[in-house]
Amino acid sequence: MPLLYTHTPYLAPHFTGNPVHHRIDRNKQDLQLGSLIENADDQSNAMARIMKSMKSLVSLRRSFFSVDRSFASSKSTDSSTGVCFDLTPEQMEVQQLARQFSRSEILPAAARHDKTGEYPWEIIKKAHSLGLMNHHIAEEFGGSDIGSFESAMIIEELGYGCTGITAAIDCNNLGEIPVVLAGNKEQKKKYLGRMIEEPLMCAYCVTEPGAGSDVSNIKTKAEKKGDHYVLNGQKMWITNGGHANWYFVLARTNPDPKAPSHKSLTGFIVDRHTPGLTPGRKEINMGQRASDTRGITFEDVLVPKENVLIAEGAGFKIAMGAFDRTRPTVQI
């Protein structure tokens, strides 16, 4: 049989031809996780303990993908040989934590939030204390830095409770990813570090009235003046737009209309309370009323040059990288 690829890190035992099955006491685990959630306010980060036993994910994945294919093909005639797609015990624990949180915290509040449109701050604070947010921030800055598979697994479980509340939680990842991918150490420490220290929100400001995922039509402009850039333009459908502490903003820095978009766009980090930045009215989204979606207007907003990600003209690649990295959870 052909070599199969999987995110599951426990691979070595399966090359022996003896698939491994992990057993777990669900009742006992539910009680433990339930206690953890009830005492969420006292937990600095529940995921940190779970993630300690997942540190070998990267090295094991690398060793798996470097295995000589001839070795795998030599086993292909043995029907008992293969790669097990079972979740590891650590992944199961992460999944169960998210599932318990969804059932005990999100689901009971879902109808009320969908009716009133109230932003789910209390739920967000508990999710933050348990480490169920900000999945991709590196350990260096206090995060858990879990993979896309584990992140998607968490969002799948939270989404069972309410898609609107989950959208608010998950869109932090979308806003953070440009800084994760392209930020320098100072930018990461300043903007990602605060997301771990406090239950703060951020937003991804790319979509405009005439430009969605097709970022080539972006009209928002940024003109350099001295040590700052002056932003002018309008964004729309920005999730967490009214509650963000800071924004990733994609703007056009090359005024030449004939210049190719992949060299004309620049990514900026913009603080929420910068003068000239104005969130619009909250949109009413069917099935996601708890999610805060708004337009954002930039009128002569001054952004320091230190808040440029990488350099002028790098914004297109940063935005595409963010789309790629976050597609698994967005699709869920």
TrEMBL record:
GO molecular function, one term: medium-chain fatty acyl-CoA dehydrogenase activity
Gene Ontology cellular component list: mitochondrion
Residue stretches making up the Acyl-CoA dehydrogenase/oxidase N-terminal domain: 88-197
InterPro entries, A to Z: Acyl-CoA_dehydrogenase (IPR050741), Acyl-CoA_Oxase/DH_mid-dom (IPR006091), Acyl-CoA_Oxase/DH_mid-dom_sf (IPR046373), AcylCoA_DH/ox_N (IPR013786), AcylCoA_DH/ox_N_sf (IPR037069), AcylCoA_DH/oxidase_NM_dom_sf (IPR009100)
PANTHER family in alphabetical order: MEDIUM-CHAIN SPECIFIC ACYL-COA DEHYDROGENASE, MITOCHONDRIAL, MEDIUM-CHAIN SPECIFIC ACYL-COA DEHYDROGENASE, MITOCHONDRIAL-RELATED
Protein name: Medium-chain specific acyl-CoA dehydrogenase, mitochondrial
Keywords: FAD, Flavoprotein, Oxidoreductase
Entry annotated with the keyword Flavoprotein: yes
TM stretches of this protein: none
Pfam families, per the entry: Acyl-CoA_dh_M, Acyl-CoA_dh_N
Organism of this sequence: Daphnia galeata
Lineage top rank: taxon: Eukaryota
GO biological process: medium-chain fatty acid catabolic process
Residue span(s) of domain Acyl-CoA oxidase/dehydrogenase middle: 203-301
UniProt keyword annotation of Flavoprotein present: yes
Cofactor(s) for this UniProt protein: FAD
